[in-house]
Structures are given as C-alpha cells and as structure tokens.
Here is the input.
Amino acid sequence: MTTTTDAIPSALKAKLDELAEQYRDVGRQLEDPDVLADHEQVRDLSIRRSALAPVVEGYQRFGGLLDEAAELRQAIASGEDAELAEMAKAELPGIEARAAEEIEAVKAALVSSDDNLVGSVILEIRAGTGGDEAQLWAADLLGMYEKYASKKSWAFETLDFTGGEGHGGLRSASVSVKGEGVWAELSFEAGVHSVKRVPATEAQGRIHTSTATVAVLPEPKAVEVTIDWANDVTEHITTAQGPGGQNVNKVATAVHLVHNPTGIEVRMQESKSQHQNREKARRLLMARLYELQLREAEAERSAARKGQIGTGERSEKVRVYRYQDGIVADQRLDEKFQLRQILFDGDLATLMSALLEQRTAQRLADL
Here is the structure.
C-alpha cells in the first residue's frame, strides 16, 4: 500500500507531518480540564486549531486517496478478476485527479497557515498630510475597521486615542483587534491610505487629497518577546495631554516607555488609570519589538520570499478612495470596488478575498 511519501517532496511531507502532530497536540490540550478553565488559552488554541485544520484535514484526505489509488492499481496488476480489473482501470484516473486537486488545495492552505495562526493584532492609524481633513480621514478609516471587525465578530479594543484639533477627527489611535484570521486579512492594510474628496472645511468645493497611515502589528504572546523590564525599559509617568499640549488632568496617569536598546518609545494616556495605561503601553511596546524582529528576519530572507510577513512598508501607498467616482482603487489589484460598500458599510470581504487570492498565488509560485 502506498504512502504520501510516494507523491510529494520529502521536505513538504516533513512539514505536513509536523503540522499534523501540532494539530493533534492542540486537540489534546483542548480536552484538558485545566486548559478549558482558562478562556484566554481556549481562544488562542481554538484559533490555532482553525488555522491548522484546512492543511491537516486536506493532507489526511490526500493520504486516503493515495491509499485508494494503490488498492486499485493492485487490483489491476493482480489479474485475478478481469471484471474487477476493468472497473479499477475506469475508476483510477478519477481518484488520481482528486488526489492532485487535494494536494494543491493543501499547498494553498499551507502558505497561509502561518498568517492564520496570528489571532491578535494592534492597528495603528495616524493622520498624514492634509491638516484638519487628514484627521477627519483618519477617523473615517478607524470607523471602517470597527465596522468590519463587527461583521467578522472580532474583538475591537481601543488602546489609545488622540483626538484631532479644529473640526475633530483624530491625530492617532491604537486599537487591539482579536479573532480568527485577523492578521491574514488586516496585514494588507499596512501603508498609506489616500482619499480624494471635497473636505467639509473647503468653502469653494475643490477636491483635496489627504492621507492617513496604517500600521498593523502582530500582537505576540509574552513568550515570543523577551524584555528586561527592569534594566532595558525606562518608564516616565506624566499627566495626560490634550491636542495642544496642555495638561488635561492633575493626576499623573499617562505612561511613557522607552526601550533603551532599540530606542522604541510608547506613550499611553487613554485610561484614567495608571495601571491600565502601563499594561496597554507594555502590550504595544511588545508588539513593536515583535514587528522589528519580523522585519529584521525578513531582511535576511531571499527575494523569493518577498510578500510574506513583515514586508509591508508603511511608506507604501496601498489604496485610494475616490469620492467623486464612488470607487476604491487598491494599488495591488486591477479591479475597483464600491466606495459605499468599503468605507461606509465597512464591508471589506470582497476586497480581502481578492488580496488573499493574489497573495496565495504568489506564494505558491515561490514554493
């Protein structure tokens, strides 16, 4: 009886066998009463199992089809039953075709499995060029992501929010988004988002171009980032400040962290509790250090791996939202999308599907 070794490269088989063992291990953990009592651990393990399932279950179906094909070949070769041999000859091509389709589907799931394992990200939005209108635009983007998170049943938590001046909007915001497939989809959003529209502040009806930048940071578990909080991080406690720099309260609750080895700084003042601001600031600092690690690792990889985690530079313009035409143009895709559906309704499903399909094809070409 044949095995999967006969039909796929040894390196691919080794990777699939490794993932199959991880899948079994996750299943065992989810049956442990101690684990089931920890809702956070159950959520993380469930996301991991969901990410591994398409690969492992497809791999199992593929193995079953190969075994079935081997039995048919044996029936043909034995020559003991002519009628059975003819039936086997007729059935074998279909089984082989199904096996070929299954392994291609497994490969497609495999190149996305690492992305799907990341179940929590920190989304940072900052107003770019365009003054007050850019701050209004940044607020619109934040609303779009919040609507999409709701449609996906993702948890959406505001970590920090700095309001805009003048007509409102926001200068910057950091939010935590948690749920299945959150990194696989939102990683596409990193970069510059440009809007072409007549601003509310424009008296003569002229179209302006404003921008906002979006950064998407995979939020790591504590075991993935090691920080010597006592020796490597300097903490400053200050009073929270408003848009103009003035103090907005008399109690020192704002937290400013500096990671001395890298120079990365984090400020958090959203909460009135110093303890909560410190906890959120540490989460954000860990995420930024994790992103730095990913980018450094990516720089060492070959050009053939370009397009995977960590390659989206913030300076890249990824999307233009054109109010006059009612369309959204993503710079990575040929097709256009409806502005109302994307921005106003927060329905990015079609757009995300197209981007995922494109990335999967690119990664398969690199295998």
User: Anything to note?
Assistant: Residues 6 and 250 are 72 Å apart (CA to CA). The mean pLDDT is 84.
